[in-house]
Specification:
Helix content is 35%, strand content 19%. By secondary structure, the protein is of the alpha+beta class. The chain has 4 domains: 27-228, Histidine kinase-like ATPase, C-terminal domain (Heat Shock Protein 90, 2-Layer Sandwich); 234-407, Ribosomal Protein S5, domain 2 (2-Layer Sandwich); 432-548 and 642-678, Rossmann fold, CATH 3.40.50; 551-588 and 595-618, no CATH class. The strands form 4 sheets. Strands 1, 2, 3, 4, 5, 6, 7, 8 and 9 form a 9-stranded mixed sheet that branches. Strands 10-11-14-12-13 form a 5-stranded mixed sheet, sandwiched between helices. β12 and β13 form a beta hairpin. α4 packs parallel to α7 (194-207), α9 (297-316) packs parallel to α11 (360-380) and α13 (443-452) packs across α19 (627-635).
Length: 684
């Protein structure tokens, strides 16, 4: 019972101890799930799987697990099984309950804080399996150890039974099985995508050549299975990434070694690289199996030793002349595909995103191990060394040509942020955080967008047709393309050596193209441009894709919009449940009062559904929408849908762009045939 004094303070709006809410156990996770898994969209849904898999991988890093099997079950749940040591089931001395229950219900509980249990770990810096438990409708754990099969079930993070023995097991076998169903109260979409999980397992298999990973989809109509085991490790990883790009030499360079840091702890280094005939640098870095998207000290060490070793070799062999063009680090990395993986006992990541390694000692260790082995390799493979140096010299010449092209462009005010392209309809607000720019396909759609936009914060840049495919072009050719120059100019960050993300003029850059084959091609060309030459804008979350509607469904004065076939059918079904307004004409002019199924819309035609007189129009393109329609459906922040472009797996993203935009036809055909079932609503 509160005292009169406390009640009076409350009435006066004072902030007291009574206002402090203490969340216990896993309650904080359920209250604020995005704090722990990033978001509650499809990305967060898949993150739950990765957390469980990472625990199994940590057992593999410790040398105990060799097989990890994942299945997407018929009911939509996911099971992860490993043959590691099995989570301990004995009583925890401080918690006075089974260690298994402690691991599953207490945040930051686990064996990874004790370096005698796990020498290195990726899971330590994850959110942990307890978070998966908290965000699951139910979760079941089975542990095989000590000749027994132990079991415990949880519902929304709370134990439904104590840890108990439910059977016997082979005394020689150990392992853990975790099965969970994501909570529908947290996740609106609980459908797992086989390909997304498979990409991560494939990546882990390359990084851990001693581990066999399998994924099976047991859902009805989706049954399939894949197995990942790459004995060649990083060398096979490099070949996989570069599969569609002609290699400069047959066998990738490979280095492996270890050294002690200042505290006497062992740091392991592994790297592989290959050169191809393209112009982009593709370096992928990992720390304890964590993909460090922003690099860090291990990346700095690799780049430094690569430049130094190649420069020394080129000069010593006479391939780099004293009076030749001066080579830079960028020249030595043109056409390079590399993977660097380090195992660090106490990794220090900058920020909470685990994307940049901060351990200063790792730089020197990487330099020493890779530098020594690379120098030996170059001496033993002079023909490959010559090919690399020749490519670097050509890159330097092209860089010099690009520099002259940029200087010429600046003299013409083509890349200066102070001079904007004439076709750009800019916004009045200057704060990038509150501004957005639409890159719109075609002058017609651009005209509608300019009339329908909110001029205060929305800028419109129409482009004509298909821009240059930058996958096959060096920078000086790219800068000759007028449409691309306009894009660079409008964004304001510069490009290449001049790129500075802080100078961006718009917080959101939204690609808006027609929902047809040509529109898809233009969108892919633009995404290739951003991925290859303004990748940081994607990493910082500045790139979006607009989602214009495909259909207008009109009934009387009511107009509804559908963004795909499923939504169209759902609207028609809802309208059919309304009382019919008499007999009307269906497509073809015939009376049909018994029409039950949705009538397929034909491009550019109106279709009348006889049951209730609803007319369907299929938009041919953005230009067909008047400014009011374009605003209300595609540009109004309160009603529109936009997709933010992100990179979950950089290596697979790089490979996909290479397949779609490179010179090889057959890999592109195979990719299209494999993924055609996911393409909807295109005018093919």
């Amino acid at each position: 019972m509160k005292s009169n004094k406390e009640q009076k303070k409350k009435q006066e709006g004072q902030y007291t101890a009574d206002d402090i809410t203490v969340l216990k156990g896993l309650e904080p996770v359920r209250q604020r799930p995005a704090m722990y898994i990033g978001d509650i969209s499809v990305r967060g849904l898949h993150h739950l799987v990765y957390e469980v898999v990472d625990n199994s991988i940590d057992e593999a890093l410790a040398g105990y697990a060799h097989n990890i099997n994942l299945s997407i079950n018929k009911d939509g749940s996911v099971s992860v099984v490993d043959d590691g040591r099995g989570i301990p089931t004995d009583i925890h001395p401080e918690e006075k309950r089974s260690a298994l229950e402690v691991v599953m219900t207490v945040l930051h509980a686990g064996g990874k804080f004790d370096k005698s249990t796990y020498k290195v770990s990726g899971g330590l810096h994850g959110v942990g399996v307890s978070v998966v438990n908290a965000l699951s409708e139910w979760l079941e754990v089975e542990v095989v150890r000590d000749g027994k099969l132990w079991f415990q079930r949880f519902e929304r993070g709370k134990p439904k039974n104590p840890v108990k023995v439910i059977g016997k097991s082979d005394p020689k076998k150990t392992g853990t099985k975790v099965t969970f169903l994501p909570d529908g109260q947290i996740f609106k979409n609980r459908v797992y995508k086989f390909e997304t999980i498979a990409e991560r397992l494939r990546e882990l298999a390359f990084l851990n050549p001693d581990v066999v990973l399998t994924i099976a989809d047991l859902r009805k109509g989706e049954e399939r299975e894949e197995k990942f085991h790459f004995k060649g490790g990083l060398m096979e990883f490099v070949k996989y990434i570069d599969a569609t790009r002609p290699a400069l030499f047959k066998k990738p360079f490979y280095a492996k070694g270890s050294d002690k840091d200042e505290n006497g702890r062992i740091v392991e280094v592994e790297a592989a690289f290959q050169y191809n005939d393209q112009y982009n640098e593709n370096i992928f870095t990992y720390v304890n199996n964590i993909n460090t998207h922003e690099g860090g000290t291990h990346l700095v060490g690799f780049r430094t030793t690569l430049t130094r070793s190649l420069n020394t070799y080129g000069s010593k062999s006479g391939l780099i002349k004293e009076n030749s063009v001066q080579l830079t680090g960028d020249d030595f990395r043109e056409g390079l595909t590399a993977v660097i993986s380090v195992k660090v006992p106490e990794p220090q990541f900058e920020g909470q995103t685990k994307t940049k390694l901060g351990n200063s000692e790792v730089k020197g260790i990487v330099e020493g191990i890779i530098g020594e082995q690379l120098s030996t390799w170059l001496d033993e493979n002079p023909s490959d060394g010559r090919k690399i140096i020749d490519k670097c010299l050509r890159a330097a010449e092209a860089r010099e040509a690009a520099r002259k092209a940029r200087e010429l462009a600046r003299r013409k005010n083509a890349l200066e942020s102070s001079s904007l392209p004439g076709k750009l309809a800019d916004c009045s607000i200057e704060d990038p955080e509150h501004c957005e720019m639409y890159i719109v396909e075609g002058d017609s759609a651009g005209g509608s967008a300019k009339q329908g936009r909110d001029r205060r914060f929305q800028a419109i840049l129409p482009i004509k047709g298909k821009i240059l495919n930058v996958e096959k072009s060096r920078m000086h050719k790219i800068l000759e393309n007028e449409e691309i120059r306009c894009i660079f100019q409008a964004i304001g960050t510069g490009v290449g050596e001049d790129f500075d993300a802080s100078k961006i003029r718009y917080g959101k850059i939204i690609i808006m193209c027609d929902a047809d084959v040509d529109g898809s091609h233009i969108r892919t060309l633009l995404l290739t441009l951003f991925f290859r030459h303004m990748r940081e804008l994607i990493d910082l979350g500045h790139i979006y894709i607009a989602q214009p509607p495909l259909y207008k469904i009109k009934k009387g004065k009511q107009e509804l919009y559908a963004y795909d076939d499923e939504e169209r059918d759902e609207i028609l079904k809802r309208l059919k449940s309304e009382k019919p307004s008499g007999t009307s004409l269906a497509k073809g002019g015939k009376k049909d009062e018994k029409e039950e199924e949705p009538v397929e819309a034909v491009e550019g035609e109106e279709v009348v559904v006889s049951a209730n007189g609803a007319a369907i129009s299929r938009f041919k393109g953005l230009g067909e929408m008047n400014p009011e329609q374009l605003w209300s459906t595609t540009m109004n922040p309160e009603t529109r849908t936009v997709l933010q472009v992100s990179i979950e797996n950089a290596a697979d993203a790089d490979r996909t762009f290479s397949i779609l935009m490179g010179d090889e036809v057959e890999p592109r055909r195979e990719f299209i045939e494999k993924n055609a079932k996911y393409v909807r609503n295109l005018d093919v």
